[in-house]
Design goal:
Endonuclease, Chain A, 16% strand, binds zinc ion, elongated
């Protein structure tokens, strides 16, 4: 028989009495685990092991589930700049609730009957529910990036995203028509859409011989890489420089954008991209012009 602590661990470090019973943990075994300190009672009928994190403890204390943007962040899905804790509670569970957690982080409550209730965790909403809530909490740009990111991070399939989109608010419909599931990160979605809306031709994930996939190719002459937060370290540094060199060797300009340049300083970043694209286009026209002149030159 498994110990109470190991069963709680297998359920993500939080479990209800009913879940423990279903997995064969007897009341006596639970009492022993509580006495030994391996397990603690969070609230009535809910137990945590030592690995439960602050968000899980706050959610449990509120008799809620981690939901929306907070659930997606745990899965590495794009959630914009929001860092508050989003919890789902049953619609009738009103009453006084703290506005912030112990660390002063704001708590955003969703009182709702789940639209996609098939969660496998008592403390966490289902992936489709989380995305459904998140696209309501986010502005249009971040909501679209979140939908593409949910597929890229393998939280949802394209079909599941389509089902969630079927219930999306009207303000997102235009963005939903522009979904393309090519992006390697939420930031890439955002840059691709901003540049297209500014009138540029942008192709995502272009296969280039000797270089691999390029994030975004602008006007067929500038390769844009959006450095995700995940990519760090000396190996990556060397890999990126190698790639930039090969791109430039193919006659394209290579630009690499950081999270802060995109999210906090877009105005300056956009001006620089515009300048580099315009210069690269002029250069391309000049070269192309020479070829035409040479080909047509009968003299
Ligand atoms: Zn655990
Ligand atoms: Zn929310």
């Amino acid at each position: 028989m498994h110990s109470a602590a190991s069963v709680i661990c297998s359920l993500g470090h939080v479990a209800t009495t009913a879940e423990l019973r279903r997995r064969g943990v007897s009341p006596g075994a639970l009492r022993d685990a509580l006495a030994g300190g391996a397990v603690a009672r969070a609230v009535r009928g809910v137990y945590v092991c030592a690995h439960a994190d602050p968000d899980q403890r706050t959610a449990t204390a509120a008799f809620g589930r981690i939901s929306c943007l907070s659930a997606l962040r745990r899965a590495g899905v794009w959630t914009g700049l929001d860092r508050s804790l989003h919890l789902q509670l049953p619609p009738h569970a009103r009453g006084d609730r703290p506005a912030a957690d112990r660390n002063g982080r704001p708590i955003h409550y969703h009182w709702a009957v789940p639209r996609f209730p098939d969660s496998r965790r008592s403390w966490l909403v289902s992936p489709m529910e989380a995305v459904w809530q998140a696209i309501r909490c986010l502005d249009e740009e971040n909501a679209i990036a979140c939908l593409e990111s949910a597929v890229h991070e393998r939280l949802l399939t394209v079909d599941e995203v389509r089902r969630v989109c079927g219930r999306a608010p009207a303000r997102l419909q235009r963005g939903i028509r522009e979904l393309e599931f090519t992006a390697g990160s939420g930031m890439e979605t955002i840059v691709r859409r901003r540049l297209r809306h500014a009138g540029y031709t942008v192709v995502a994930q272009v296969q280039v011989t000797g270089v691999g996939d390029e994030d975004l190719l602008v006007e067929d002459c500038v390769a844009l890489e959006t450095d995700g937060e995940k990519w760090h370290g000396p190996d990556r540094f060397h890999f990126d420089r190698n790639r930039d060199l090969k791109t430039e060797g193919l006659g394209r300009r290579a630009l690499r954008l950081t999270h802060d340049q995109v999210m906090y300083d877009w105005e300056t970043t956009f001006l620089s991209i515009t300048r580099v694209v315009d210069d690269a286009k002029r250069e391309q026209t000049r070269r192309f012009g020479r070829v035409i002149l040479h080909a047509d030159d009968p003299l």
